[in-house]
Design goal:
The chain has 323 residues and is α/β, with parallel strands linked by helices. 30% of the residues lie in helices and 24% in strands. It has helices at 92-105, 124-137, 150-155, 168-179, 185-188, 214-227, 268-280, 299-302, 307-321; strands spanning 8-12, 16-19, 24-26, 38-39, 44-52, 57-64, 73-79, 108-113, 156-166, 191-197, 256-262, 286-292. The protein has a 9-stranded mixed sheet, with helices on both faces. A 3-stranded antiparallel sheet has the order 1-2-3, covered by helices on one side. 44% of the residues are buried. Residues 76-300 form the Alpha/beta hydrolase fold-3 domain.
């Protein structure tokens, strides 16, 4: 190693490198940002708002540009993916796909911009995302001194609120739906449903597609241990909802849930197992499973204009608008 080169402590290929001096070099996944504003293709309007200045927690809000004040629309609280160490609410790929979801479903959407590892290790992402949920929940009682974000007060039907997220965002939606049961938030918001897109659940023992794909299994093992170096590793209850110490699924505080998986995704069979165990549990809601053939993980983020992405957006729109 030359005198001008720094020693790499952790290489999280192909996304970032952590050096022994503590510096972090991000190579992909968080390098691009796009501002909020009017998207001419979808006629969806977005704006950024700061929730907690002390931590930098913020959110990007979306609504149809054609919506009028007093026109109450379903609200989707969205948690983006990225394995807890990539991406942001300003990522152009997420921004473009969420514009299309909002246009297809005619909804208001809050995309939470939580802190990511390794700069902010877990549980920072969970803490931020829960704080954003509390912020949203302060708005139904705006006239009694609640939240003052005009888009939420003017355009949202707080009787139709949903969690949604892809990958690690779907993971957080799961945990928050369990946590709601014993929280004050449940007194202010009733979550109708959860849309889990390619949910990020994992475990030490390989199942399904993981058994024959040792390379990707090992890669995902390493990603999780990078953001959450706990003694339980990939059987930590945060990532494995069926390990010792995990909460039962019967406590999910919603009436409906949809799990969307992709045929070629290494996480596919974890999503299927989640749906299977949910149906077998004492949970009283209705659960759907949709498998998109020929696609891989978060394909709709990478190419929101493909036919399968359009199909998925229509399914989500139906889910959010079902009475």
């Amino acid at each position: 190693m030359g005198s001008g080169q720094k020693e790499v402590a952790r290489d999280v290929f192909p996304y970032l490198k952590v050096y022994t001096d503590g510096t972090i070099e991000r190579l992909a996944g968080t390098t691009e940002v796009v501002p909020a504003g009017l998207d001419p293709e979808t006629d969806v309007l977005s704006l950024d708002t700061v929730i907690l200045p002390e931590t930098g927690l913020s959110a990007r809000l979306y609504r149809p540009n054609s919506a009028k004040p007093g026109q109450k629309l379903p609200l989707v609280i969205y948690y983006h993916g990225g394995g807890f160490f990539l991406s942001s609410a300003a990522d152009p790929k997420y921004h473009n796909s969420l514009n299309k979801i909002v246009a297809a479903a005619n909804i208001v959407l809050v995309s939470v911009d939580y802190r990511i590892a390794p700069e902010s290790p877990l549980p920072a992402a969970y803490e931020d995302s829960w704080a954003a949920l509390e912020w949203v929940a302060s708005h139904p009682k705006a006239k009694q001194g609640g939240g003052n974000e005009a888009w939420l007060n003017d355009y949202v039907d707080f009787g139709r609120v949903f969690f949604a997220g892809d990958s690690c965002g779907a993971n957080m939606a799961h945990h928050f739906a369990l946590r709601l049961q014993d929280s004050k938030v449940s007194q202010q918001l009733k979550i109708q449903g959860i849309a889990m897109i390619h949910p990020y659940f994992w475990g030490k023992e390989a199942i399904g597609i993981e058994v024959s794909d040792h390379f990707r299994k090992t890669m995902v093992d390493g990603w999780w241990k990078f953001v959450c170096p706990s003694d339980q590793g990939c059987d930590d209850p945060l990532i494995n909802p069926f390990t010792d110490g995990s909460s039962g699924l019967e406590g999910l505080a919603c009436d409906r849930l949809i799990v969307i998986v992709a045929e070629r995704d290494i996480l596919r069979d974890r999503g299927k197992l989640y749906h299977e165990q949910l149906v077998k549990s004492k949970w009283q809601g209705t659960a759907e499973l949709v498998e998109i053939k020929g696609e891989d993980h978060v394909f709709h983020i990478m190419d929101p204009n493909c036919e399968n992405a359009k199909f998925m957006f229509k399914r989500l729109a139906s889910f959010f608008n079902r009475v």
